[in-house]
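A.,

Following up on our hallway conversation. Structure tokens first:
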């Protein structure tokens, strides 16, 4: 049965009125944001989305504000709705992945990021988030109840002397001042192997011992880098400056020697670089005081600094 032409006209007029009302409320919300009145902005954005549910821009702005205000459930619902319509906006997918990760839903967080990387494998922010999500999934304990946090700390405080290790391995660890499991996982394989008299057999037995405790060499350092990146992102979120962390280190136009050192550490973004300490950079062969000064000056120009041991 054909539609009544009058019904079609009425429907079109109604849609126009809804779109106009949504635009009016969205404009009022933006003005409230500029004035720093987030509650009024949320109210107006809600009206805009109510008048025109297809207004993805207002829905995204509303979700972003709700996220900042700690209203995660509503923010997640909005981001999920936005991402249902292909192609899903990249920023919505990445913001949703952070919320999923904060809830411990790492599988969904990874799916969101992978959806971005499937179309843009070199997207810097997505690559950074994927690294964080995967690190979260691999960690022994991640933001768990206090009881489990204490349990993890107790594990990391366990002396390495409590484990059955060869005399050579035990002697090397003692000379390197590695007293606990927490000390040990701050070292990489390469760092252990560079120590005098430390060989493949000692490395193998130490790796077996750590694996039995669901730990691995280098994990402590990776966790510190990840925590530092998240802390920096949280501090800059909403300031408009957070994207600087996702810029490639090539933007710093460093000297060849400094660039090679960063490549050895697999540092790809400014966020990666700022999560490292001076000591970690200076530990790379041929990275000297001149390169350190160069890196610090370039970061300083962008308002960033290298991580200090007490900053996380």
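Then the amino acids I'd put at each of the 312 positions:
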């Amino acid at each position: 049965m054909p539609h009544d032409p009058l019904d079609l006209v009425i429907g079109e007029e109604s849609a126009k009125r809804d779109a106009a009302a949504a635009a009016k409320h969205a404009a009022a919300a933006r003005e409230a944001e500029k004035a720093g009145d987030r509650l009024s902005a949320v109210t107006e954005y809600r009206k805009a989305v109510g008048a025109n549910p297809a207004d993805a821009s207002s829905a995204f702005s509303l979700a972003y504000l709700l996220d900042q205000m700690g209203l995660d459930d509503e923010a997640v619902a909005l981001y999920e709705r936005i991402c249902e319509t292909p192609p899903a906006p990249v920023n919505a997918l990445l913001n949703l992945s952070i919320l999923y990760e904060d809830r411990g839903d790492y599988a969904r967080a990874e799916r969101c990021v992978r959806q971005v990387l499937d179309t843009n494998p070199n997207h810097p922010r997505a690559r950074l988030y994927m690294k964080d999500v995967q690190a979260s999934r691999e960690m022994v304990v991640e933001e768990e109840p206090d009881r489990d946090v204490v349990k993890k700390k107790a594990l990391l405080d366990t002396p390495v002397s409590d484990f059955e290790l060869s005399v050579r391995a035990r002697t090397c660890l003692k000379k390197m001042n590695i007293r606990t499991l927490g000390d040990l996982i701050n070292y990489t394989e390469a760092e252990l192997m560079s120590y005098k008299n430390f060989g493949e057999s000692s490395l193998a037995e130490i790796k077996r011992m750590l694996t039995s405790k669901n730990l691995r060499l280098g994990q402590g350092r990776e966790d510190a880098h990840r925590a530092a990146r998240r802390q920096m992102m949280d501090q800059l979120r909403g300031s408009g400056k957070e994207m600087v962390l996702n810029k490639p280190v090539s933007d710093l136009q460093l000297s060849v020697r400094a660039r090679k050192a960063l490549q050895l550490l697999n540092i790809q973004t400014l966020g990666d670089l700022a999560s490292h300490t001076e000591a970690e950079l200076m530990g790379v062969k041929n990275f000297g005081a001149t390169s350190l000064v160069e890196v610090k000056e370039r970061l300083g120009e962008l308002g960033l600094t290298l991580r200090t041991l007490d900053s996380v």
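The chain has 17 helices and no strands. Curious whether your intuition agrees with the design.

B.
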